[in-house]
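Lecture 7, part 2: worked example. A protein chain together with zinc ion.
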Amino acid sequence: MPELPEVETVRRTLTQLIVGKTIQSVEVYLPRIIQRPDDIKRFETELAGHTIVEIGRRGKFLRIVMDGLVLVSHLRMEGRYGVYRTGDEVEKHTHVIFRFTDGTELRYKDVRQFGTMHLFAPGEEFKQKPLAKLGLEPLDASFTEAAFLEAISRRTTKIKPALLNQEYIVGLGNIYVDEALFRAGIHPEHPADKLTKRQLERLHAAIVDTLTEAVEAGGSSIKSYVNGQGEMGMFQHSLRMYGRQGEPCLNCGQPVVKTVVGGRGTHFCPTCQPPYRTSQKARQQRNGRQG
Ligand SMILES: [Zn+2]
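Predicted complex, written out as C-alpha cells:
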C-alpha cells in the first residue's frame, strides 16, 4: 500500500504530466471506484471541460484540483495512474479514463479495485469524508514537536497503532511506522501514553527524517517513471527495518524480529527497541544508582 512518500511522488509526477491539460471526456468502466457523486454519468459529464490547475495531497489522498472542481483520489493497495496517447492499447484493469483535449489521456488502473475517487466543489472536500477527520500532516510546517506531543502523548493504545491512526497523523503506514520506531529506538508495543517527552521528541524527528528521505528517494526516481510509459506508482526505498526479519540489525547486528502488533506484521530489533517494562526497569536502576 502506498504511504506518504509514494503518494507524494505520484503527486509530483502528475504535476509534471497533467497540470494545464483540459479534460474533454471521462469514461468509467468500474462504477464502484467512484464514491461521489452516486451517479456515474454525472461524474463523467461534470468533469468534461475542466482544466487541471494543481495536484495536491492530504495524507495518502491525492487532490486533483481543477477550475471549479476537486477530485480526491486514493490508490489503496494497487492503484496506478498512467498517461497515454489516445489510441494506445487499453490495458487490463483500466477502470477510469480521463481524455484530454491534446490527444493524451490519464488512465487509472487498479488490479485489486480498492481505490476510490470523490468529486467535490473546491473547499468542500475538507469538510466531508474521506478528508474531514484527518490528523496532522507530518511534512507540513504545522507538524511541530508540540503538535505531535498533543496528538500522541495521551493515547492509551500501543504506539504503533497510534501512529497508524490517520485521525492523529496522516501518511504513515506499516512500512514507515516500523522505520521511524526503529530510528527512535522505541518498541512498537510501547504504550503511547507512557513514552517520555524525550522519546516522543526522538520519534517526532525520526518520522520527519524517515519520510523526508523517502520522498527525496522517490523524487530522484521520477524521471525514469516519466520517461517510461508515463506510469507511476510504488517503488522500493532502501529500508532499514521493514521486510528484514532474520537479517542483522544495521545498528547492533542482532537479528531483526518479525511479530504482529495490532494485526499488522511488525519488524523491530529487540536490543535497540527494548520492550516498555525492560526499558522502564533499566531507567529505574539508572535513577537508583544516581540517587
Ligand atoms: Zn539493533
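Residues 249, 251-252, 254, 269, 271-272 surround zinc ion (CB under 6 Å). The chain is about 30% helix and 20% strand. Keep this in mind for problem set question 3.
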